[in-house]
Amino acid sequence: MSRTRRWILVTGILVGAGTGVVRYVRTTQPRETPAAPRATTEVRLTTLVEGQTFKGRIRYAEAPPLLGRLTGTVTSLPKVGAVLKAGDEAYRVDDVPVILLAGDTPAFRAMVPGISGPDVRQLERALTGLGYTGFTADGVYRYSTAEAVRSWQKRLGVAQTGTVPLGHVIFTTGEVRVGEHRVRVGEQAGPAPLYEATSTERRVTFPMDPKHQRLAPVGGPATVVLADGREIAGTVAAVEKPAEAGKDATVTVKATDPKALDTPEGDPADVRLVVQERRDVLAVPVVALLALDGDRYGVEVVDGDTVTLVPVEVGLFTDGKVEIRAAGLAAGMRVSVPAS
């Protein structure tokens, strides 16, 4: 006895608006029961994810601008691309060094003995981070704090006053990468930053039509695909709305492991965002599906020499797999596939 089998031949999967669209051709031919073992595959319990890919570029993350308070002649600037850390010199004005210190509150007054407050505590913690001791970081500028400041000033090679004039330090969080200079040595310094500053952490940015912004909620998952094929897990860090109607938004993705983004700034990188996800579903390769009458589908469950045609409901199509549902169908069962 012969049976008639109609395989679905997949010629393409188009992803759009969250829907998998499959084009197929049905072929009908008789087939005798083969003597050789059937080609089979396992029904798997898995998570299917349909994604949409966007073209992006590796960029350094933004950092707070280095706003100085000194006015005068710029006498020294760091090289573009230099990486500055807490304790390093940011630049010089009238040959006075302006030093980066760790902290997130901008300096707003001179620090002298007798004052107290969160800004003093921040200075004391910054000095502790640089290895200075002999005082308590309690937010009170005592004689012991002034002595630590003198020791620090001695190492800097400046006047050992024990006080910190406004404008002589800039507080910042993390390392700073020096970008394009906004002024040149010899020009006048003012309240604006003297150069662009970025974080040393690389991220991926890409343009997105605002109608797709539902795919990029801040904090949502994203996968970065580098030019060499490596895939890096990440999250959406920011979505910058377009300045004008009809323009694209700018989406920024950060890597879960920032060190994994080790390619140069400006390199291309794809970002894959989740369109829809189906967790804990049964799935088989699309080629395991049979086209039945009435736009229905089925699979052939193989158990030893027994082959049973099981009608199935289909769900998400993605990455060559399809979600299937049927009474009695379970993970671990084997179904027929075309012999390769």
UniProtKB/TrEMBL annotation:
Superkingdom to which the source organism belongs: Bacteria
One Pfam family from the record: PG_binding_1
Record localization: Cell envelope
Occurrences of domain Peptidoglycan binding-like (ranges): 116-163
Database matches in InterPro entries: Peptidoglycan-bd-like, PGBD-like_sf, PGBDSf, UPF0194_transport
The entry's keywords: Coiled coil, Hydrolase
UniProt entry tagged with the keyword Iron: no
PANTHER family per UniProt: BLL5650 PROTEIN, EFFLUX SYSTEM COMPONENT YKNX-RELATED
Name by which UniProt lists this protein: Peptidoglycan hydrolase-like protein with peptidoglycan-binding domain
Phylogenetic lineage: Bacteria, Bacillati, Actinomycetota, Actinomycetes, Micromonosporales
